[in-house]
Specification:
With about 550 residues, the protein is an alpha+beta fold. It has 19 helices and 20 strands.
Length: about 550
């Protein structure tokens, strides 16, 4: 058996580099690989190496690197690889950063929010890869393991069975915990049946997400991808935080971004309990010669986590005041009666699904509550304000940093959105029906299925014919907007909902009037590129430059670049 001592590491590195090695440090991570930071005279690299029987992990790391790197994910560069070596290895870029879990307690709410949004964006990006023919964890699309699992429930069953096997072998816990989960598995049959084999990164948790100075520096260790329900990864991250006695603010933020309904929250608890069972199964094991922790207090801690998850009914805490006075105003005005759930929490606003008052011609309404300005992040705000009737007064107040300036900025975004929605809805555009607004909130028709919001276009996989029809309908709406002097200015698959074959355009606070805003052409051109890029994924060949020019000149004359 090969020993991975410094001499052996130097031999591998020496095949590719002439530099003198200054130090070799093994990371205390990696269940399937030995991972070393090798520091040389002029650079540092990371060597990931493993034994022949675990060759597929190195092969998987190389395979998924080729698939994911072109998507723009912050992966380290792959410098060298040899998957056929007696000890397969890959040499990758060293990213200066530490695992999220090591700095979690030092992160502010805003830092956690930024990282959560970045991780969610990465998962969304990965979901654009083609689905697999089966479910579960795979080192490549042809991995036979996923061919054997024909539905998502089988993946969960396999996870529970594997954990039970480990628990029985290590004898640190009672296998009754597995029996409890198996007895509850059937409650989620309907939910499991809806899960498709969509790819997601399964191991981005409190590990493998590298943080530098409070910001995301990169991600590492993508040996596998899982096909199925991305909530399974969110639950693993949540369990890792709970196991380390941390708060779950970070995973709560991601859950808000996903807009979980009540059923999904219960599933998240169940998944977290499944991972808790896996943590129990790991107690007493030894990985790659490293001693595992055996601590009775830790064992009791895991028991308590499991019990809290199994007996937590996860009732929604209704507290209108936590969302600001506008929600209470909407209740007093008999527009809504309660907040059902958070649909989306962004950097500028939170969107809530609310129970509509019986006097309304709706079962549910959407309330969009804007955050205070210091907690928002509209980029280059002033270029959107140009030409609006309150422009001079607002800019003067902003320059003086007066209280009026701070209040007016938020109000103008809200007013602009409400007024634009009203205009577009009245002339038949596919937008939510505007109901009412306050200084910091808009309440509108809810686009969804029951209390579950319709998916954003970015999360919808259209075949060619569906995409062609959706693109035509979307362009019809864009023509309506342009004919009424409206450029969205932030149009993308992130701001279009898709329900029953119809695209619905949302999020209008930053929209501009081309007659008065000199940046409108640039914004329109960017909108068209975002749309064209999305539909290209379904095979539509769209020249966004030509599309931008033709649609603009139809209403505003020759482009002046």
């Amino acid at each position: 058996m090969v020993r991975f001592d410094d001499t052996y590491i130097e031999k591998i590195i020496g095949k590719h580099y002439d530099n003198d090695i200054k130090s070799i440090k093994r990371f205390e991570t990696g269940l399937c690989n030995y991972v070393y930071k090798v520091t040389m005279k002029d650079k540092s690299v990371v060597l990931r190496i493993t034994t022949p029987e675990k060759r597929n992990f190195i092969q998987g790391g190389c395979y998924w690197y080729e698939q994911l790197k072109p998507l723009g994910l912050p992966l380290p560069e792959l410098f060298h690889k040899d998957t056929g070596h007696e000890t397969p290895y890959m040499i990758i870029e060293y990213i200066d950063g530490v695992d999220l879990g090591k700095v979690y307690t030092d992160l502010t709410h805003d830092r956690k929010s930024d990282i959560a949004k970045s991780v969610q964006d990465m998962q969304d990006t990965v979901s654009y890869l083609r689905p697999a023919d089966g479910f579960g964890f795979a080192c490549c699309y042809e991995d036979p393991d996923i061919q054997e699992l024909s539905d998502w429930k089988m993946v969960i069953l396999k996870s529970i069975s594997s954990a039970r096997k480990n628990i029985n072998r290590n004898r640190m816990f009672d296998s009754k915990h597995a029996d409890i989960l198996l007895s509850q598995l059937g409650k989620f049959d309907t939910y499991f049946s809806r899960i498709r084999p969509i790819p997601f990164l399964d191991d981005l948790t409190t590990k493998n997400v590298l943080i530098k100075d409070g910001k995301l520096a990169g991600i590492v260790d993508v040996d596998n991808i899982c096909f199925g329900d991305k909530l399974f990864n969110l639950a693993l991250t949540r369990m890792a935080l709970l196991a380390d006695h941390q708060d779950t603010e970070y995973t709560d933020l991601i859950a808000d971004l996903y807009g979980l309904d009540e059923e999904e929250k219960l599933v998240l608890d169940f998944y977290t309990a499944c991972h808790c069972l896996s943590f129990m199964g790991e107690v007493g094991q030894v990985y790659n010669g490293l001693n595992a922790r055996i601590d009775k207090r830790y064992n009791k801690h895991l028991e308590n986590i499991f019990e809290s998850l199994i007996h937590n009914e996860n009732k929604m805490k209704t507290d209108l005041s936590r969302y600001g006075e506008s929600c209470e105003i909407f209740v007093n005005e008999k527009l809504i009666t309660d907040v059902t759930r958070v649909v989306k929490r962004g950097k500028e606003a939170v969107v809530l699904c609310c129970d509509a008052h019986s006097s309304m011609n709706h079962k549910y309404l959407a309330a969009k509550i804007y955050f205070q300005r210091e907690f928002r992040s509209f980029k280059k705000e002033k270029i959107y304000h140009i030409g609006r009737v309150w422009d001079t007064r607002l800019l003067r107040a902003e320059e003086k940093k007066s209280g009026f300036g701070k209040i007016s900025t938020r109000t103008t975004w809200v007013s602009n959105e409400f007024d634009t929605l009203s205009k577009l809805y009245d002339i038949g555009a596919n937008v939510p029906e505007p109901i009412a607004c306050t200084h910091d909130a808009v309440i509108m028709g809810f686009i969804g299925y029951g209390s579950k919001a319709a998916p954003l276009l970015k999360d919808v996989h259209l075949d060619y014919e569906e995409a062609e029809l959706c693109f035509k309908k979307l362009m019809d709406n864009i023509h309506i907007m342009l004919n009424n002097n409206i450029v969205h200015a932030d149009l993308s698959p992130f701001n279009i909902m898709y329900k029953d074959g119809e695209p619905y355009i949302i999020d209008f606070p930053q929209c501009v009037d081309p007659d008065v805003n000199p940046h409108a052409w640039m914004m329109h051109k960017r909108d068209m590129k975002n749309i064209s890029d999305y539909f290209a994924r379904s095979g539509l060949e769209i020249d966004h430059e030509q599309l931008s020019k033709e649609t603009w000149e139809m209403y505003f004359g020759p482009v002046m670049e």
